[in-house]
Amino acid sequence: MKAVLQRVTHANVVVEGELIYEIKKGFLVLLGVDNTDTEKDADVLSKKISGMRVFEDENGKMNLSLTDIGGELLVISQFTLLADCRKGRRPSFINAGAPDMANKLYEYFCERIKFDGIETVKKGVFGADMKVSLLNDGPVTILLDSKELIK
Q: Domains of the chain by range and CATH?
């Protein structure tokens, strides 16, 4: 499971011209599910993201987590994170999870991160053509791969 974690001052997602969800200060997470991922991958990423200390404390140091600041989370499914670009100019998505399996793990991740202390979790629409807007704060952008976190 791969995630692009972006610290934002605000973010939103629009589907077919309609605002679906918006968040204030927190994280926008683009989440890609690999065809070998399991709930363990979602558990590991959830724990890492909820505890990631990249928000500034009273001294201006990145020392606070999303849970510490009561921040919000917007999770967008993004199968293109699994693109294999090693050959040619057209990416292969053969490693991306099948839609039913990927959606199940996407939903599981969104529920699991609530268990890890994130009260406000908003989502995009799985499989939809979405327009995502954000104001990246910092900018702070972090790439996470569950396979690298599982030991």
A: 2-125 (3.50.80.10)
Whether 6 is catalytic is: no
Is 80 an active-site residue? yes
141 part of the active site: no
How many alpha carbons fall within 13 Å on the CB side of residue 78?
A: 18
Choosing from 6, 27, 55, 78, the catalytic residue is 78
Q: Among 116, 97, 94, which residue's Cα sits nearest to residue 106?
A: 97
**pLDDT value at 151 more than 90:** no
Which residue among the candidates 27, 79, 93, 115 is catalytic per the annotation? 79
pLDDT digits over 39-94, tens only? 999 999 999 999 999 999 999 999 999 999 999 999 999 999 999 999 999 999 99
Q: Count the neighbouring beta carbons within 10 Å of the beta carbon of residue 111.
A: 11
Distance, in Å, from the CA atom of 128 to the CA atom of 119, rounded to the nearest integer, reads: 25
At residue 52, the 3 state secondary structure works out as coil
Are 34 and 2 contacting, i.e. CB atoms less than 8 angstroms apart?
A: yes
Catalytic residue among 9, 36, 80, 115: 80
